[in-house]
Amino acid sequence: MLRSLRRRFARLWIAVSAGIIEPCEDQVVKQLLDLREKGVEYAGRDGLVAADEFFFAEQNALLAKNAEEYYRAMFRGRHSSWNVRDCHMADMFDALARHLRRHDGTSPKIAVWAHNSHLGDARATEMGERGEINVGQLLRERYGPDAQSIGFTTYDGTVTASSDWDADGERKFVRPALDGSIEALLHSVGLHQFILDLHDQRLGGFATPLLERAIGVIYRTQTERQSHYFQARVTDQFDALIHVDRSTALVPLEPSPHWYHVEVPETYPSGL
């Protein structure tokens, strides 16, 4: 379903860019403004239930508006579309915090679950050098020390990922982390799993740029160094790290036949 929606949005914006059909930005923005004008009236008339329903409707309208901008940005370049998406996620966090605060007047505690590349402060990585921002950076800028960012690392194991965009998920072997990487250093500790407080002054070595691995929707073992490693100052990127030395792939709710086929692990750097 998700792949089908992405393909439909892509075809739509190819048509818009080519001038075959008109863009819908003005209509989407008008709908959002109309909805916001009536929000106070709905909430005052029908209480908290209506306030929640209005909030959900408003966020869906805002999502449609930002999705229109996101898919337009995709045709201009990756960095632009990445920033649009992460700004939307950070703004959604702000909106949710305000909405929950209105319920009882207290500041809510919200947990955001996302990939390291979204939650680790982009300013401490190659992403920031390319002009990319992310949720972790934006929340730190907006909330200061109240925003705590926790990263996850692993040395090897298995992972559920695709070989290409829109391809089926597969259960893949994760190669042992490269020497000199953050994951390899944590592996040398010799513990199966542990939490590392990155505010500990004894971790000065992590303040210098080190290789860090990112495995997301895509995992390409053949080009792992180029595709999945980047430089990062981990003590500036996160407040803490949870290291699981050997990971285990998540089983999809609806696994494809490809998922049950486990690829044969290579004897790195050469295979038999």
Q: Can you describe what's shown?
A:
By secondary structure, the chain is α+β, with helices and mostly antiparallel strands. The chain folds into two domains: 2-76; 150-272, 3-Layer(aba) Sandwich (EreA/ChaN-like  fold). 46% of the residues lie in helices and 14% in strands. The protein is built from nine helices and six strands. The protein has helices at 2-17, 25-74, 78-104, 116-119, 126-129, 135-143, 182-187, 224-228, 234-237, and strands at residues 150-161, 170-174, 193-197, 210-213, 229-232, 240-247. The chain has a four-stranded mixed beta sheet with strand order 2-1-6-3. The chain has a two-stranded antiparallel sheet with strand order 4-5. A hairpin with an 8-residue loop joins strand 1 and strand 2. Helix 2 (25-74) packs across helix 3 (78-104) and helix 3 packs across helix 6. The longest helix is centred in the first third of the chain and has 50 residues, at 25-74. It is globular and about 55 Å long. The mean pLDDT is 81.
Write the layout of secondary structure elements.
Elements: H1 2-17, H2 25-74, H3 78-104, H4 116-119, H5 126-129, H6 135-143, E1 150-161, E2 170-174, H7 182-187, E3 193-197, E4 210-213, H8 224-228, E5 229-232, H9 234-237, E6 240-247
Parallel strand pairs: 1-6
Antiparallel strand pairs: 1-2, 3-6, 4-5
